[in-house]
Amino acid sequence: AGRGRGHRSEQQRRPLSSTHTHHYFPLPPPDHPPTYQPPRRPISPHRHRYRRRRSSGSRSSRGTKNSCMAGVQERQYEEFFGGFYFDEDALSKDISLDGLDKELEEHKNYDVLISILTNGEKQRDMATMVEGNLGHIEQDLIQDYIKDNDSLVLLHDQIHDCDIVLSQIGSLLSGFQVHIRSLSSELRSLHEKSLDLGVRLKNRKLAETKLAAFVEEIVAPPGLVNAIIDGEFLLAGK
Known about the structure:
Layout: E1 22-26, H1 45-51, H2 56-80, E2 83-87, H3 100-106, H4 111-119, H5 123-147, H6 149-218, H7 222-237
Antiparallel strand pairs: 1-2
């Protein structure tokens, strides 16, 4: 009660709360606008608490005057420059405008972007329209899915049957692979045995060659054998 009229409490000096959903920001003015004034600062919701302490006549007259001035100013801005409406999220400090010029240049031929930049349409209206279109598209896709439900179920069953067949083929291939590994082991063993037999055959041939020459040298001719036998008979007869 003892505070001055211009005094504001700690709660009244707080920044704007998130209850303000929209804020109006006009486009930047041209070089020489006819009647340009800087945008008015949005009124904090805490100011209304402070105004309740004033008289009803002062509140009504001042509020009517401010609303009329704000309405005229907004109409002037919208007439000369167009305007955009942004949500509270658009004022977040996390939003970065780096690369905005590049993105605008890449998407300059988009009809939606051209319509927004030329006609000054509200972003929320555009978002609502796009969201509605997406909702219709989603409903159409759901209806198409319902119509093709039987075909999709049949396709699912066929895929399941194919999975079973492929699993069986995989089991057969696994068994065949094990059999091939066993055959490979047997072939390796047979190869080692064939090498051993080849070495034995080579040694036997070499021994046969050397023994044949020695046998030819020590074997007596048939005539000598006959002479020896005949001589023994003659000696026995005398």
